[in-house]
Specification:
The chain folds into 2 domains: 53 residues, Multidrug-efflux Transporter Regulator, Chain: A, Domain 2 (Orthogonal Bundle), CATH 1.10.1660; 106 residues. By secondary structure, the protein is mostly helical. The termini are far apart. The chain is flat.
Amino acid sequence: MAKVYTITREAAAQLLGISTRTIDRYIRSGKLSYKKVANKVLLEKGEVYDLKKDFSALHQEVETEVISQSSSSTGLAKSNPQLEAMIEQKLEKFFLIFREKDKMLEEKNKIIFVLQQRVGELETKIQNMVALPDYTREKQEAIIEKQKLEEKISQLKSSIKNEKLINLILIGLTLVFLIIA
């Protein structure tokens, strides 16, 4: 079956919720095939929707259920409402912390997105500049700014990785508390 190239880079970026720069990276790495028509890059519709499915699978929340074989002597935990209330309070606190971490991660992702857009704008500006005596000076400034922005992006990415690790540790602790209770 022949591939149909109908989606522009911009439309694919908007559909996937990522930048056109990321789309370009996917094209270069071979994750997306493309066809150039009248100086426009068109992407294969099926591949874009497959990538969207992959993204949605990554962002789904996994529901877990802890099943354990325990003896009939678990009546102590059920008969102690104070213990249950305390466990509920701790769980609510953990979930509140998780929600706050998720909000922080979303904010950092937005900052990364804005910085990546700025880097793309600077690259476009550099490409479209006319050869003038101060072209090299402006190019140097743009390269320095690009490097600073890329450093900031890498710092934010490492910060996000650390936040994810902390979230995983907190989830593990929650599971341990649930198993102990």
